[in-house]
Amino acid sequence: MEALYAFCVGVLTAAGVFLLLRGRTFPVVVGLTLLSYGVNLFLFATGRLNDGDAAVLGAGSDHADPLPQALVLTAIVIGFAMTAFVVILAMRARGDLGNDHVDGRVPEIVLDSEERN
């Protein structure tokens, strides 16, 4: 289970970084979201992965640490707010600049193909 969990965290992180390096705003937003999911899963795993054990209750020592769970819950809320802010910022930039490129400039390759039409 740990290997699959680590593989999922790695895939989410790699996909997030790949999408963050794109030139348009929507892939950047999706990349930020995937990267935050990967980080949240990593933080959640630091509290120990147990199957079938109680989260906190019980006299036994086999329980998950509640601190990473609380951190992940807080990170999910902050990440959702950050995603909403970035989406609104991207929509505003598209309205003001007329395109959805991260730097606000349309690449010359696109301009050449548009001039031909």
UniProtKB/TrEMBL annotation:
NCBIfam families reported in the protein's UniProt record: PRK09094.1
A Pfam family: Oxidored_q2
Gene3D superfamilies documented for this protein: 1.10.287.3510
Record family assignment: Belongs to the CPA3 antiporters (TC 2.A.63) subunit C family.
InterPro entries: CPA3_antiporter_subunitC, NUOK/Mnh_C1-like
Transmembrane helix listed as a keyword: yes
Protein name per UniProt: Na+/H+ antiporter subunit C
